[in-house]
Structure formats: structure tokens, C-alpha cells
Amino acid sequence: MSETRHTRVLIIGSGPAGYTAAVYASRAMLEPILVQGIEPGGQLTTTTEVENWPGDTEVQGPDLMVRMEAHAKAMGCEVIGDIITSLDTSARPFTAKGDSGTTYTADAVILCTGARAKWLGLPSEDAFKGFGVSACATCDGFFYRGQEIVVIGGGNTAVEEALFLTNFASKVTLIHRRDELRAEKILIDRLMKNPKIEPLWHHVLEEVVGTDSPKGVEAVRVKHVDTGEITEIACKGVFVAIGHAPANELVKDTLDLHHGGYVKVEAGSTRTSVPGVFAAGDLTDHVYRQAVTSAGMGCMAALDAERWLAEQDD
User: Fold this and answer.
1) Under CATH, which architecture does the 4-116+244-313 domain have?
2) Which is catalytic among the residues 77, 82, 112, 136?
3) Average pLDDT for residues 96-117, to the nearest whole number?
4) What span, in angstroms and rounded, lies between the C-alpha atoms of 120 and 130?
């Protein structure tokens, strides 16, 4: 049997942005409801060691998200394991439909649905995710000090990741299907001048090779796009850097977007193009994409929502 739930603030998504928004909205006595979505905890649940979360020298990504969820609940937020399938922002109260059949109505909405790294879709890539295969150099590059690694891609993301990884790796092989990069010229110039980076043109990743005990990457097999010839390259890490896709399915037709689908917010705030709808975290952030910046935006979104609601009540 379907039911309708009303809340002052509906938070959609459960990564660092969502849970932080929940803490702040709860402390503001807004009695928020947070709907976790398809991946409770967000992208951090697919990582292992996290070494850049302030206050924790090292913490497992899933453990950190369990703690954030517990914190949100302790402050008074109701956390619901449901998936929002549609969101109507055309009239207040806003209306969201859950996969469970529940309808949620809210005076304000905070969107924290995040972004997903784009993957190649190879079975071997999937098998070693978190064990040598990554989509975040700033998250995982530190673990490859003195190692040889490969980066897959040819745009800004790939070049930036390759350059960043030279801080740790002894050698970075950049594998690209074409013979020229699509990145900004200044980045290409830096890459070409870096003695640690070796581009490999006209190749695509065919397979990630590794061991099961202990689980880890040992090499990649790459295929020449013209000849089909297979080459094996020894490496300890594989960084897939073909971009990120913001999870904007709920609002792609109703909110202003930019930079390839990220929700546009007013500078210095989390206000979207629809009054009363706020957005935080990787859904809006095409630059930093870090847990700590997402959490900061979650705080901002809750404070923005609190102030906006107070203005409506005047």
C-alpha cells in the first residue's frame, strides 16, 4: 500500500554531501528525510583506504559512510532505503516518487545524487576495481609510490590524472585510442615535457591482468586499433580517466545544467534555477570531486535551505 510522507526538507542521495546536509538540517530542527538512493553511501563505498579525510589518517571508505549515516540518524534525520524515481519541481510542495511506492512531498529539496565515473565495461576492469583499478587519481595515487601505472583516456581528465600521478609513480603510460589528445593545450604541453609520462597512441585497453591472492594488478593487455596486435604492459595500477557523468536523471529536464550535465548553482551558494531546490556535492562539482568538498557543500545546502524556508514563513 502506497503512502505519502511530508517533510520540510527532502534530501535525495546519501554520500558525504547528503549525510552532512542531514546533520545540519536536523540541527536546524527541520526534521529532514533522507532517501539513500541506488548506492547508499555513494562512491566512497566502492573505495578501500581513504587517507585524505580530515581527522582520519586512514579509514575504509565504506566504514566512513557507515559513520556518517549513524551521525545523521543520531541528529534526528530519518534515513530511508528507497530510490527516488521522479521529482516534480513545478509546484510547492515538491513531489518525489519512490520506487517503494511511497510519495514524498517537501517544502525544500536538497539534491545530492552525485556523479559516477565512466568505465569501459570490461569484466577484468570490474574484477579489479578497488584492487589496482581506479577512476580517481587524487583518491588512490598515493598508494602507487615508486610503481609503474597506466592511465586510460585522452581528454582533460586523463591528462590531469597522468600529471598528478607523476608525483608518486616511477612511470606513467598514457594509453589513448587516437594519436592526439583532446585536452587543453597547456595541459598537453606539460604532459609532453614530463619525463615520467610515455604516451601510447592508437591503443585501447583489452584486459587487466592480475592475481587473486593477494588481489592486485600485475599488467594490462592493450590492443592496437589498426592492426589488432596485443601488447602487455607491466603495471601495478590502472586509472580509467574517461570522465564522469553526473547523476542528473531526476532534474535534467527541469534545472539549468552546464559543463556536460552538472547542475548549475549560483556562485557561492547551492541554489539551483528553481527556488527551494538546492544541490550539493559531485552532482554540481565538475572541478574538485572530493569527499571533503562534497561534505562542505552539503553543509551549505542545509544552511541555504534553512534560510530560504525562514523567508517563506515570514
Assistant:
1) 3-Layer(bba) Sandwich (3.50)
2) 136
3) 95
4) 15
